[in-house]
């Protein structure tokens, strides 16, 4: 395990600027998640660290050593790809043993066998070791893919949306398992995803990528409650943060220069009243909770409500702000 | 892909369509099989039966054609033949019944061996070089890649006969005329373009992430190629090998022009099998029948790969 640092990294593919001036440190033993939409440069970041791409500018260092001129094989990283994770012509066992059998390592077969079985147990695939890798379900494949990284003890694990192709239930399970495994072995891990739930639940720190720039990095709490700008605020929170013009709702104290107010559920106070400033437009029943769709003038807001809240469609309510987020005309956060 | 079909499936052809298609395929198969069946039958006819008109469909099969194919014979007086001991083999017996004795082996077997060496040798080389070149074109940013690929293909755009004379002169200068090496090089040159194009398609379909994963795991590019790319390209390699082999095995024009003696292949040799007083058709037919065997065996061995191969990866996985 080791610290990995990116310094002023830029990378372009022809006309496309995939990354601009990215600075990032993943500390020893830390679980960092990069969160960003498709095309924001997540995969490119991982490929640069692994040595599959060369940066146009900047430095990559692993355990204090500048690795930009090193081949992937000598960088001591493990990579879980988004797709095509397993070798289709090999069995599960052979897939797991593949990294250990590399000429660079030359481990004795007994040691390989012990390691493969240990990891297979860890990712709960030990009952299918002799299966062909193409005969597995999606969840099993992804577990083997993660296992193939775990058989090694590299400086850093790089994972590229390893769970994105799975259904919601499996994703939830594997998310927990991955976090458990990372705790067990105390590994340094850089994980990229476009799923905010994965980021919030697994990360020690989250980095927000947008258009090839690292916009903000911090603990999940910091990113959630202290977003640097509108973009970051919009990445997190379910339902989506409400962006409303300043002055629409009472409450709070907007600093000068405020253009937009960001109001999540916890920033909205609902009081039922005969003739309030807002009207319930629609209620979505999700079972454990309700999404209230609220109309204020022509603006529509969504917020969470307790399912026992006795409120119905067409009811008028009083809506007030409580310590919302303020943004200036450029989308920067004001405090 | 599911086997379940419903009566009103939109993509599944109707029963009538399928039946008509089936009939057409069977008819076509019959038409293409007739010459083969004809050759096979002729190889078991006696020389008079083979040229009788109308052609005989029912005849007494004999091995005379095969005997004549593998031997040279000389005519002898009946007295001399009487004076010999009992016949050594079936062929001996057949030959003596025609008032002849076996003088020695014919050139068929050496020519057949030449064909094997040249066809398999050039196929191996073409597929080997083609795989490496296709991998290079598929994975690296080769300068002028499109132009190079077009140039490689363009070597197949003219008929062989158009370049026959220059190659003939060149080979004579280089001492490659009538040598197995010369023929292997020539067929390799012709086939390598086909191999590069076919294999590039197959290798393009193998995601490069597989090799990248291997390289991150401590393999060099060459090792990753051997351990990850090659096993997944076997279908394409097998299909390409069959196409190359069929070309090299059947090639006639260059073979006639450039080989005459020690390196002669079977195709130019077979038509020169002459019996007493004209063509020995049963022997020619026997030579052709045996000539078909290696391709048949090779194709059957690789049938599965070939079937998937000629759909060019459409049903991979
Ligand atoms: N090999 C490549 N060639 C050209 N453009 C690329 C290549 N790889 C990535 N890009 C471009 O760089 C940008 C970032 O891509 P990527 O890192 O894959 O984003 P993400 O993984 O966040 O979806 C995208 O605009 C993408 O189209
Ligand atoms: Mg990606």
Please sum up the structure shown.
Chain A contains 8 helices and 19 strands. The mean pLDDT of chain A is 90.
Features:
heterodimer, A: 335 residues, alpha+beta, Rossmann fold, OB fold (Dihydrolipoamide Acetyltransferase, E2P), 2 domains, six-stranded mixed beta sheet, five-stranded antiparallel beta sheet, 8 helices, 32% strand, B: 317 residues, mainly alpha, MetI-like fold, two-stranded antiparallel sheet, 4 strands, 67% helix, disordered N terminus, disordered C terminus, binds adenosine-5'-diphosphate, binds magnesium ion
Question: Topology, pairings included?
Answer:
The complex is a heterodimer of chains A (335) and B (317).
Chain A: E1 4-13, E2 16-26, E3 31-35, H1 42-50, E4 57-62, E5 65-66, E6 77-80, H2 92-97, H3 109-122, H4 138-150, E7 156-160, H5 168-185, E8 189-193, H6 196-202, E9 205-210, E10 213-218, H7 220-225, H8 230-235, E11 242-245, E12 260-263, E13 268-272, E14 278-285, E15 290-296, E16 299-305, E17 316-321, E18 325-327, E19 333-334
Parallel strand pairs in A: 3-8, 3-9, 6-7, 7-8
Antiparallel strand pairs in A: 1-2, 1-4, 4-5, 9-10, 11-12, 12-18, 13-17, 14-15, 14-17, 15-16, 18-19
Helix pairs in contact in A: 3-4
Chain B: H1 15-42, H2 47-51, H3 64-70, E1 71-75, H4 78-83, H5 90-97, E2 100-105, H6 108-139, H7 145-154, H8 160-174, H9 180-204, H10 209-216, H11 221-232, H12 234-250, H13 253-258, H14 266-269, E3 274-275, E4 278-279, H15 281-301, H16 303-310
Antiparallel strand pairs in B: 1-2, 3-4
The complex binds adenosine-5'-diphosphate (ADP) and magnesium ion.
What does this structure look like?
The complex is a heterodimer of chains A (335) and B (317). In chain A, helix 3 packs across helix 4. In chain A, 39% of the residues are buried. Chain A has 335 residues and is α+β, with helices and mostly antiparallel strands. Chain A folds into two domains: 4-235, 3-Layer(aba) Sandwich (Rossmann fold), CATH 3.40.50; 242-334, Nucleic acid-binding proteins (OB fold (Dihydrolipoamide Acetyltransferase, E2P), Beta Barrel). Chain A has helices at 42-50, 92-97, 109-122, 138-150, 168-185, 196-202, 220-225, 230-235, and strands at 4-13, 16-26, 31-35, 57-62, 65-66, 77-80, 156-160, 189-193, 205-210, 213-218, 242-245, 260-263, 268-272, 278-285, 290-296, 299-305, 316-321, 325-327, 333-334. Chain B is mainly α. Chain B contains 16 helices and four strands. In chain B, the strands form two sheets. A two-stranded antiparallel sheet of chain B has the order 1-2. In chain B, helix 1 crosses helix 15, helix 3 (64-70) crosses helix 15 and helix 10 (209-216) runs antiparallel to helix 11. Chain B is globular and about 85 Å long. The termini of chain B are close together. Chains A and B meet through strand 6 of A and helix 10 and helix 11 of B. The complex binds adenosine-5'-diphosphate and magnesium ion. Adenosine-5'-diphosphate binds at residues 13, 16, 18, 36, 38-44 of chain A. Chain B: This is Carbohydrate ABC transporter permease. Chain B: Residues 112-302 form the ABC transmembrane type-1 domain. Chain B: Its main location: membrane. Chain B: Belongs to the binding-protein-dependent transport system permease family.
